[in-house]
Automatic annotation (TrEMBL):
Belongs to the group II decarboxylase family. The gene is LOC118432702. GO terms for molecular function: carboxy-lyase activity; pyridoxal phosphate binding. CDD domains: DOPA_deC_like. Keywords: Decarboxylase, Lyase, Pyridoxal phosphate. It comes from Branchiostoma floridae (Florida lancelet). This is Cysteine sulfinic acid decarboxylase-like isoform X2.
């Protein structure tokens, strides 16, 4: 008690009712007092502190920040979105080292030098906001998301307690609630994680904890062999998570996919029965909604039936394809049954363009995240705080400090409304259709999948020298070398970036992915023209 009294008397924030509290007992006055404090801070954001008048932002630092903002706006944003600029000014690592002044010295450098370093950093970085950057499952640049990122960086807080992140804590609650509503969970819980891989790791960890809560204290010793099921075309993060959590990659069973890349539900059930017969314990099925390469959506309803029958946790990795839930037009045909899952990974930083990183892990179950991860650190999550400590959500996380990922998404959502998302997602899927038709109609181009389900358009470019030679023994080997060669030329010319990969026994093919609604039909025509230009002599 005496500590509290001292701190109340010392504090610059001590309220006018502190004396009343001391005299009349704390409990009776706590709420009145905190409400009054809150009201006064709402009306007036200056603290009651006597200090000499001094601008906290020195003139030279203000000038520096203004100059930085110009670099960001002109070099980063305007040029970054400009079709006439290169997507990348590529240099091999050794050469790049000579082009940049990376040395850290004993003496400080002046503002002019720092601005030059910033400009160089932009110059030699990849312009992922460029309309012709198609390389990754993220692209484009949303102005409001960007504005949100700037403010988040400026406020530089950590999303663990209401105390240091009051606005972001309740904002995170609101946004996660909204996302769960869209998934179709009533109630439940969630958290923003640093990426889809970590969200998938959360899924495995909470699922295992639900079945075996003792594991938190006793660890892996004495546990039966636990087995995870995921499709052959699912993301590698499932295997990584199994390895990190001590489940072991040998205990990740890869379920067969059909020719479109979708998990075959009957094979899933056969594998579950096989594993049970071996005496192991199946506990977790990962479905993918939007596989990384082909963009396949696993049959959620069928998998949900199997999970219910065998009592398994059903997780949906919708890191990439989850954006389709924002489109009433395309959602049902892709993600019917998602509401039956136990948990989902959904990355707004991918198809929804919210900026790196923004990944939600959502689950149907309440309190599980908290119980599974809480460590109850007394220096951070004190239970005798003067506000409702259920708003200190940080102990649900496996991290301590946690970056604020919600604000950019919230601001973007405010700027678009639900309607804007419907339009954006429809635009993404409509552009996909446009490209599919163009690829099908064009000589020398061949679709890997005739009808992609997500916004992944996978195709081969077959140079004139290989056309009509499909039956020759070395055809596949030669075709396999085409995409990497075109990619090399593409990177060196800097005109655009698009990814390629092999898949199973399929030789290298291009994967064009759409995650930005601002890609135009001209950009897509350019993509095909450019691949042809770069590869027709091969
Ligand atoms: C299906 C799928 N799941 C998970 C991930 C991992 O997401 P992140 O890169 O945010 O960790 C990816 C990444 O591409 C993905 O395609």
């Amino acid at each position: 008690m005496s500590n509290i009294l001292t701190s109340l008397e010392d504090s610059s924030f001590s309220c006018s009712c502190a004396k009343e509290m001391i005299n009349g007992g704390i409990d009776g006055h706590l709420n009145d007092c905190s409400v009054r404090n809150l009201k006064s801070s709402l009306n007036d954001d200056t603290a009651n502190v006597k200090a000499p008048k001094k601008d906290p932002l020195p003139k030279d630092e203000e000038d520096f920040l203004k100059a930085v903002f110009q670099v960001i706006l002109e070099d980063g944003v305007r040029k970054g979105r400009d079709i006439t600029q290169k997507v990348v000014d590529f240099h091999q690592p050794d050469e790049l080292r000579t082009l940049l002044d990376l040395e850290i010295r004993d003496t400080p450098e002046d503002h002019q030098a720092l601005i030059k370093h910033m400009k160089d950093t932009v110059k030699y970085s990849v312009r992922t906001s460029h309309p012709r950057f198609f390389n990754q499952l993220f692209s484009g640049q949303n102005t409001y998301a960007l504005a949100g990122q700037w403010l988040t960086e400026t406020l530089n807080t950590s999303q663990y307690t209401f105390e240091v992140a009051p606005v972001f804590t309740i904002m995170e609650n609101v946004v996660l609630h909204k996302m769960r509503d869209i998934v179709g969970y009533s109630g439940g819980d969630g958290i923003f994680c640093p990426g889809g891989s970590i969200s998938n790791l959360y899924a495995l960890n909470v699922a295992r904890y639900r079945y075996m809560p003792d594991i938190k204290k006793t660890g892996l010793f004495g546990l039966p062999r636990l087995v995870v099921f995921t499709s052959k075309q699912s993301h590698y993060s499932i295997k990584k998570a199994a390895s990190v959590l001590g489940i072991g990659t040998n205990n990740v069973v890869l379920v067969d996919c059909d020719e479109r890349g979708k998990m075959i539900a009957s094979d899933l059930e056969a594998q579950i029965l096989r594993v049970k017969a071996e005496g192991a314990v199946p506990f977790f099925v990962n479905c993918t909604s939007g596989t990384t390469v082909l963009g396949a959506y696993d049959p959620l309803d069928e998998v949900a039936d199997i999970c219910e029958k065998h009592g398994l946790w059903m997780h949906v990795d919708a890191a990439w394809g989850g954006g389709v839930m924002m489109s009433p037009k395309y959602r049902a045909s892709r993600m019917r049954g998602v509401e039956r899952s136990d948990s989902i990974t959904w990355n707004p930083h991918k198809m929804m363009g919210a900026g790196q990183q923004c990944s939600a892990f959502l689950l149907k179950h309440e309190n599980l995240l908290q119980h599974c991860h809480e460590a109850k650190a007394k220096y951070l999550f004190q239970q005798d705080k003067f506000y409702d400590v259920s708003y200190d959500t940080g102990d649900k996380s496996i991290q301590c400090g946690r970056k604020v990922d919600v604000f950019k998404l919230w601001l973007m959502w405010k700027a678009k409304g639900n309607q804007g998302w419907h339009e954006d997602m429809d635009a993404v899927f409509d552009k996909t259709r446009y490209l599919v038709e163009k690829v099908k109609a064009r000589e020398g181009f061949k679709m890997v999948l005739d009808e992609p389900e997500c916004s992944n358009v996978c195709f081969w470019y077959i140079p004139p020298s290989l056309r009509g030679k499909e039956d020759e023994a070395d055809y596949k080997d030669k075709l396999h070398q085409v995409a990497p060669k075109i990619k090399e030329r593409m990177v060196l010319s800097g005109t655009m970036l698009v990814g390629y990969q092999p898949l199973g026994n399929k030789p290298n093919f291009f994967r064009q992915v759409f995650s930005s609604p601002s890609v135009t039909e001209e950009d897509l025509d350019f993509l095909l023209d450019e691949i042809e230009r770069l590869g027709e002599d091969l």
